[in-house]
Amino acid sequence: MSKPDTYRSVLDSDFCIRELLQDDLPDVLDIERQGYSHPWPETVFRDCFRDNYRLWSAFHGDALVGYAVVAYMFDEAHLLNLCVHPHSRGQGTARMLLRHTLAEASREQIWQVILEVRISNAVANGLYTSEGFIEIGRRPQYYPCANGKEDARVMALRFGH
Ligand SMILES: CC(C)(COP(=O)(O)OP(=O)(O)OC[C@H]1O[C@@H](n2cnc3c(N)ncnc32)[C@H](O)[C@@H]1OP(=O)(O)O)[C@@H](O)C(=O)NCCC(=O)NCCS
């Protein structure tokens, strides 16, 4: 799929991004369980509804199709979760959520956004790199996986202000 078609599929639909609410959690948990081998439990999501967290949700019409969770620590933000429903992937949803997350962080005077991503997660690595993130380190054996443990790539994006 070419890039213009990808974005047409997001922009032509009734796509929107808004704050994630606690009432959205049943849909979030459904997507989370389909997105990860080791999904966050509900208690972890509930613990993210704090002043220094930002939680964003993406909708196609009435359907919640993706979400992002970010923790702010002073002037740094940590992207903790970004996930899109399997049926809605490849349409630009994650890129739009990421751009929204970054724009909001920049607006709130955050100077750097960091994240960890599995080395094997080619789609997420490609997305983050194409949005300007660079690798700043590795966390060895960070993630559980089928064969034991897997390294995390630590990535950062710094704003100009
Ligand atoms: C990673 C994830 C969020 C991407 O969501 P998505 O909405 O499908 O992503 P987008 O459609 O915005 O695509 C963004 C980029 O990812 C890459 N990408 C998307 N689908 C891809 C595929 N099937 N193969 C290779 N690259 C792909 C492309 O670089 C794409 O950009 P492009 O369309 O301009 O070429 C989604 O696959 C997901 O939820 N995975 C499970 C959870 C996860 O791994 N989250 C990341 C944790 S760090």
Automatic annotation (TrEMBL):
Residues 15-160 form the N-acetyltransferase domain. It comes from the Bacteria. It is found in: Cytoplasm. The keyword Lipid biosynthesis does not apply. Transmembrane segments: none annotated. Acetyl-CoA binds at N121. The keyword Mitochondrion does not apply. Belongs to the acetyltransferase family. RimI subfamily. It catalyses: N-terminal L-alanyl-[ribosomal protein bS18] + acetyl-CoA = N-terminal N(alpha)-acetyl-L-alanyl-[ribosomal protein bS18] + CoA + H(+). The lineage of its organism: Bacteria, Pseudomonadati, Pseudomonadota, Gammaproteobacteria, Pseudomonadales. One of its GO terms (molecular function) is protein-N-terminal-alanine acetyltransferase activity. GO terms for cellular component: cytoplasm. Its EC number is 2.3.1.266. The gene is rimI. Acetylates the N-terminal alanine of ribosomal protein bS18. This is [Ribosomal protein bS18]-alanine N-acetyltransferase. It comes from Marinobacter salinus. Keywords: Acyltransferase, Cytoplasm, Transferase. The active site is at E116, Y128.
